[in-house]
């Protein structure tokens, strides 16, 4: 798990703190990447994600890298939970 700074495509000025956990998901074929991103609760993250639907996709840039799709799965006491390949 590592700390990241994330923003949603189209809103580069709205940076949010998060935690990224990289992982693999096993399939019948070779394993596929399945990263988990937790965007920590803040006023900004609440305004972006509090009223969004389960499995809605968001295009995030993490630490200024290329954009990656993450799917909203849940919210807990720490933040909003996303996965790259649910």
How would you describe this protein?
The two termini are 18 Å apart. The chain contains one helix and eight strands. The chain has one domain (2-83). The protein has a six-stranded antiparallel barrel with strand order 1-2-5-8-7-6. The mean pLDDT is 92. The protein has 86 residues and is mostly beta strands. The protein has one helix spanning 43-49, and strands at residues 2-8, 16-21, 24-25, 32-33, 36-40, 57-62, 67-75, 79-83.
Can you give the helix content as a percent range? under 10%
**Based on DSSP secondary structure assignment, what is the total number of beta strands?**
8
Uncertain spans, ≥5 residues at pLDDT below 50? none
User: What is the overall silhouette?
Assistant: globular
Largest sheet: 6 strands, antiparallel, barrel
H-E order: EEEEEHEEE
How much is the radius of gyration in Å?
A: 13 Å
Strand content: over 45%
Overall tally of structural domains: 1
Look at the structure and give the mean pLDDT.
92
* Helix/strand class: mainly beta
Spatial order of the strands in the main sheet?
Answer: 1-2-5-8-7-6
From the N-terminal CA to the C-terminal CA, the straight-line distance is 18 Å
Helix count equals 1
What's this model, at a glance?
The chain contains 1 helix and 8 strands; from the N terminus they run βββββαβββ. It has 86 residues and is mainly beta.
List its salient traits.
single chain, 86 residues, mainly beta, 6-stranded antiparallel beta barrel, two-stranded antiparallel ribbon, 1 helix, 8 strands, globular
């Amino acid at each position: 798990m590592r700390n990241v700074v994330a923003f949603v495509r189209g809103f580069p000025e709205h940076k949010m703190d998060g935690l990224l956990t990289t992982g693999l998901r096993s399939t019948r074929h070779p394993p596929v990447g399945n990263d988990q991103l937790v965007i920590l609760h803040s006023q900004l993250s609440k305004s972006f994600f509090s009223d969004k639907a389960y499995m809605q996709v968001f295009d995030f840039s993490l630490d200024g890298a290329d954009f990656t799709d993450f799917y909203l799965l849940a919210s807990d006491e720490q933040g909003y939970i996303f996965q790259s390949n649910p």
